[in-house]
Amino acid sequence: MTGWLTRHPAALSEEERAALKDVLTRCPELDAAAGHVRDFGEMLTGRLGARLPAWIDAVDAGRLPGLTNFARHLLRDFDAVTAGLTLDWSSGGTEGAVNRIKKIKRQLYGRAGFDLLRKMILLQ
Predict the structure, then answer these.
(1) Domain of 62?
(2) Residue 20 in contact with residue 12, Cβ under 8 Å?
(3) Do 4 and 20 touch, CB atoms closer than 8 A?
């Protein structure tokens, strides 16, 4: 179910679409949750951060426990979330470099000193 709800509708097979439609007609709460998830997905892919306040209000009005808690947690750092949904900037390159260094460090743990670690990082 989660996969059906979180994937783009075009990525679903005909059988999956039919099964999802059947489940959503049987459970109105899940149908409402699916709508909110789709709307949030559109905000993510379309860089539509300006819609976030209206989305949070709609989720809060729907009183769906999991989504309501998620929406309320977004309010804790609202400016950063809005910027993440709006701006084209990404820290993905930096995060990738940090993860690569951590991987190398784990591989060499207990076997080498700083000099070998430095060489391994600079060579890769």
Answers:
(1) 2-86
(2) yes
(3) yes
User: What's the domain count of the chain?
Assistant: 2
Give residue 6's identity as a one-letter amino acid code: T
Residue 44 neighbours by CB under 8 Å, 6+ apart:
85
Residue 49 is encoded by which pair of tokens?
């951060």
Say if residue 66 is in the same domain as residue 108. no
pLDDT beyond 80 at 112: no
Q: pLDDT tens digit string along 21-47?
A: 999 999 999 999 999 999 999 999 999
pTM here?
0.71
Q: Which amino acid is at 12?
A: L
25 and 65 co-located in one domain = yes
